[in-house]
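User: Some background: our group keeps a shared notebook of sequences we're curious about, and every so often someone picks one and asks for a predicted structure to add to the entry. Today it's my turn. The entry only has the sequence so far, pasted here. Could you supply the structure so I can complete it?
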Amino acid sequence: MDPALAIIELNSIASGILAGDAMLKKAPVTLLGAHTICPGKYLVIVGGLVAPVEESLAAGVAVGGEDVVDTLFLSQVHPTVFPALTGTAEPSHREALGIIETITAATCILAADAAAKAADVVLSEIRLANGLGGKGFVLIQGDVSNVEAAVEAGVRLASEAGLLVRSVIIPRLHEDLRDRVLW
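Assistant: Of course. Here's the predicted structure to add to the notebook entry:
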């Protein structure tokens, strides 16, 4: 099975909810996220098999019309992206923490996917746009060399698009901060 993921971002909350409804009614996909984002936009994320996700995205774009500001379709998604997006990733306290911060939600997902495919790491969390001024970030854990390779891959992708805010690698995150950041 080839997992896929689609995002649609709209500049109207009402249109966003309507588009999300159309997406879910069009094809058998899993709703991974649907919420307002700053400043006053709406984001819908669905996942599933390639063909249904493509159909779902097309339905959302058709219904959203001129309110659609961005879309993303990504096939062959690394399996760790889904739990990191939905907050169901298994807790893991590895040697190093890498953080990639991007300007857009779509770029954050692309960077996270690239990072997970580049090295043996754990995606702890992908947080998108909500309360972040439309930005996104991904938390990546593993041994130092793998986190460095993963962050490099994600940064390369985000930088090529001109949408990287910052990236950092922390070799041994202090345990008090780790307990707050990596709950």
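Suggested note for the entry: Strands lie at 3-10, 30-37, 41-49, 68-75, 96-102, 122-128, 136-142, 164-170. The helical segments are 13-26, 50-64, 81-86, 105-118, 144-160, 175-181.
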